[in-house]
Design brief:
The chain has about 325 residues and is of the alpha/beta class. Helix content is about 45%, strand content about 15%. It contains 14 helices and nine strands. The longest helix is centred in the first third of the chain and has 16 residues.
Length: about 325
């Protein structure tokens, strides 16, 4: 926890000393690993807890446009029970981009390599939106280090067919072309970025100024147009029927938590995933938009704490929220 507080202090200097369009380097206290010579940055909590070594670690995976700072509200209470890690997936946040590796499989490989390098033999993967897609892809690929996948408002296969937000549909349409992606990124203003962030939240009072300032700097980095374009094209061009087939054969337990007020992906897409995945449960979360890590962070941390002691697996559909 002390190390994370130090990272937060250093991030204030990042905000104070950079302008939109700058290349950002990780805060000095933020640890990294290297995959094929490229930096993958992450934050960790719970490392000084003498009981944490006996519990299953939890690895957090952010969504499209996100980074590790989406997770502190959930990491803090959970770190009292186990080790927790929040990654900046390749290219996002403070991690370096690999322009030849931008698929779901590539991100699963990066997460697997992260676990290998840190000596993590078993973990719960908890992802939101696109990060939940990486988590279910790891389950579909049968990665033995993944004990359970917890999906928060997950991106489903065929995501553009299930994307309800007109704003997000426009963002993805803009980024389908390399030229318009670079132009849109160049013209993106903080007020526009704030509107996109608010689309994710039911309670936009949780969007504090420091987070918005930092996230906008992260999004305005020169690497981002390439990454946004690659993910937008992937949403349209990936062989989603193959992923449906893989998910139907998954044996990893999967928990799906879906916000009832999500404006990006709604209950129909969560039900679609639930029906695809054999060993799954679907839990509806009331008073929750797409950014469950903000709107209902206590429910998420409480659920993950329960997951640490779960023994029996059952297929359920919980409408209690």
């Amino acid at each position: 926890m002390k190390q994370f507080q130090k990272i937060l202090h250093e991030l204030k200097s990042v905000v104070a000393n950079h302008k939109p369009g700058d290349v950002l380097t990780p805060p000095p206290s933020m640890p990294s690993i290297y995959i094929d010579g490229r930096r993958l940055s992450y934050a960790a909590m719970g490392l000084d807890n003498e009981h944490s070594s006996t519990a299953t670690p939890v690895i957090f995976l952010h969504g499209f446009g996100g980074f590790f700072m989406d997770w502190p509200r959930i990491m803090a209470p959970l770190s009292k029970h186990t080790k927790v890690y929040a990654l900046d997936l390749p290219g996002w946040g403070f991690s370096e981009i690999n322009r030849d590796a931008n698929s779901l499989e590539d991100d699963v490989e990066a997460v697997d390599e992260f676990m290998k390098q840190l000596g993590i033999d078993s973990a719960i993967l908890c992802g939101i939106s696109y990060g939940a897609g990486v988590a279910w892809a790891a389950a579909a690929m049968g990665r033995p280090r993944v004990k359970r996948a917890v999906l928060l408002n997950p991106m489903p296969p065929n995501p553009l067919d299930y994307m309800h937000s007109g704003l997000y549909q426009g963002v993805f349409a803009l980024n389908l072309s390399r030229a318009t992606s670079f132009l849109g990124h160049k013209l993106l203003r903080k007020s526009q970025y704030k509107a996109i962030c608010r689309e994710n939240l039911l309670n936009d009072r949780l969007l504090d100024t420091f987070y918005l300032d930092l996230a906008y700097l992260v999004m305005k980095q020169p690497k981002m147009p390439f990454l946004l374009n690659a993910h937008a094209r992937g949403a349209r061009e990936l062989n989603w029927s193959e992923w449906e087939h893989r998910l139907a054969g998954a044996r990893t337990p999967v928990s799906i938590l879906q916000g009832m007020d999500d404006r990006i992906f709604s209950m129909d897409s969560a039900t679609y995933l639930y029906e695809l995945i054999p060993h799954s449960e679907l839990i509806q979360v009331s008073d929750c938009g797409h950014a469950m890590v903000f709107d209902q962070h206590r429910k998420v941390s409480d659920f993950l704490i329960q997951c640490l002691s779960r023994k029996e697996e059952k297929r359920t559909f919980d409408q209690s929220g």
